[in-house]
Amino acid sequence: MWGVLVEESRNSHPDYSELEQYAQGDALELVEHGVGAEAEEGVVAQGEPVFSPDVVSAEDTRVEIEDCMDSTGWLRVDIESGELVEPSPEEPIFRQIDAGVSFDGLTWRVSELRIWEIGSC
Fold it and tell me: Domain 2-118 carries which CATH code?
């Protein structure tokens, strides 16, 4: 899911169709909204975040994952000028990510996703 999300965050007209293979429900809505809102504001991303996920619980059809995403290198850029929207961060940007991944009998998809505020991990 994150690979597709990062790739689509670079596009001024994001295509969410591939995200449906990896996310569903509220998680899908959250990532579509986030990328779409940025594009509507004339902003795309460059670079990419760094992930270090840990499985915190696993059952037959459900897995809970926690991560401390480092988005220091995932920068916002103005579509028109190609200039950074805000200065490059001087300190690392860490956010806690909590995800619930569900198996529907055919595939695993992120069904719950919470992206916490900067400094949450």
Answer: 3.10.450.240
